[in-house]
């Protein structure tokens, strides 16, 4: 039996109180970050500093002219938000190869940072029966400090169902707090909105909704998604298009610390619908959006104080999407995990059809 996961708390509303949407509640106005400053550090790298509506600070670093990814120090790579440099010529089956890594680098070096923008009350948080994919469960006494994967963004179909959405994301959670990064497509208000996003749910860093980070959504493109803990003041979050170099990578900072509250025992690799709420009220599930298969590659959790570990050796649990609105019948289906590479494919039923 697959265990049910407790709902993430938005206010005090439980997941079982949520209904599937019949009409839009409202069209949220995006609240964008304020640009505070652009500064240059000793390496010549540019820091674009933003302040979010909830007080979080965001530092997006654009490498300077002296930056050479082939020779840059580990510290400088980490500063600009790059994952470790693969060996030259490395080709990881279905994962992040040296070619993919260099694509991320190109996205960093030509980035023109945009202010992140929150969609208040629009959540991509875990609700019972509302997600499809896998989660890793840490060993007793251990916690995760990050998660990363590459995905192939699915094609989506605007169909007979209305008020629909989808997201694909990775994150770390205990099912009360969550830090995540991913991509979304949303038609709930009648017009299509899409892109890369990050979100903190619960705790003192709560963003108040999904936060668009300015990376366009392109069906069929591969995206690298990463969240990882830097220190108690900072989390590093990345959404990077591996095919065209569009990129967001930034350090999210709380001046009072508290980053350790997001070190948690579960790492998630998920497809999910959005929820909408007004003034902190009960969340309303959007309808599920018809889309092609989603491919997750090299799903990896980062063990706090240790290092990366593939999902396949972290007690993986399969998550199945059900619909509360139609008697908890199945909406999504996940293929068995490919153990050697920790890849998997996730499917959704067509809009209005139950598997």
UniProtKB/TrEMBL annotation:
Annotated protein name in UniProt: Peptidase A4 family protein
The organism of origin for this protein: Actinokineospora alba
